[in-house]
Amino acid sequence: MRGRASRSVALATAGALLALASLASRAAHACYVCTSGREDETGRAFLVGSVLLSLLPFALFGGIALFVWSRARAAAREASAAGPDSPPRPAHPVHET
Prior knowledge:
Helices cover 69% and strands 0% of the residues.
């Protein structure tokens, strides 16, 4: 008996939600493509946001590549300045006490 009552409550809740969804305002059903013919600030904001979000991964990987390239270039410059016969420098200076 309890299962039948909970099922009817679930059906009533689903019906109420469906009725509320059908009565929602038209703005809730609108999409960006449907309003693309209008010249308003919203469309421009969506376009700028889309462009910025599309360029973000390129900027991230480009920044990482630039960092690695500059570090490799600095290391090569340091190695050429040290000369071919000099021993390699340790990564961390050793302090003797």
